[in-house]
């Protein structure tokens, strides 16, 4: 049996963080997302103006995406680290771009 090219390690955790960050920020058809439920359970607001305005869960998702980016970059030889790093970079840039567009 041939061994894996990459080992499972700390860098592999970048995929888990990526999934958590995406799940925290993606809005479902009912207008809510997992992040909204988590923030509500913690007694925090998910939106800047009630149910409209700036969706804070996008910024909270950065709590997961930035470490995913770092771990994927730092431990590139681990299984899945490249995917976790690449995807977290893409979604981080999209969120920052959306926010800049919102401000303009």
Radius of gyration: 16 Å
Sheet-strand content, in percent, reads: 5-15%
Helix content: 55-70%
Question: Mind describing the biggest β-sheet?
Answer: 2 strands, antiparallel
Strand order of the largest sheet: 1-2
Summarize the structure.
This protein has 104 residues and is mainly alpha-helical. It has helices at residues 13-25, 34-41, 57-74, 81-103; strands spanning 47-49, 52-55.
Question: Layout of helices and strands, plus pairs?
Answer:
Layout (H helix, E strand, L loop, with lengths): L12 H13 L8 H8 L5 E3 L2 E4 L1 H18 L6 H23 L1
Antiparallel strand pairs: 1-2
Helix pairs in contact: 1-3, 1-4, 3-4
Kindly describe this structure:
The chain is mainly alpha-helical and 104 residues long. It has one domain (10-103). The protein has helices at residues 13-25, 34-41, 57-74, 81-103; strands spanning 47-49, 52-55. The chain has a two-stranded antiparallel sheet with strand order 1-2. Helix 1 runs antiparallel to helix 3 (57-74) and helix 1 (13-25) runs parallel beside helix 4 (81-103).
Question: What are the defining features of this structure?
Answer:
single chain; 4 helices; 2 strands; elongated
């Amino acid at each position: 049996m041939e061994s894996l090219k990459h080992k499972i390690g700390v860098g592999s955790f970048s995929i888990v963080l990526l999934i958590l960050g995406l799940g925290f920020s993606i809005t479902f058809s009912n207008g809510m997302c997992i992040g909204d439920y988590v923030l509500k359970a913690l007694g925090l607001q998910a939106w800047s103006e009630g149910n409209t305005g700036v969706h804070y869960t996008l910024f909270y998702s950065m709590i997961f995406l930035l470490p995913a980016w770092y771990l994927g970059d730092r431990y590139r030889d681990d299984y899945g680290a490249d995917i976790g790093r690449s995807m977290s970079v893409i979604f981080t840039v999209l969120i920052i771009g959306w926010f800049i567009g919102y401000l303009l």
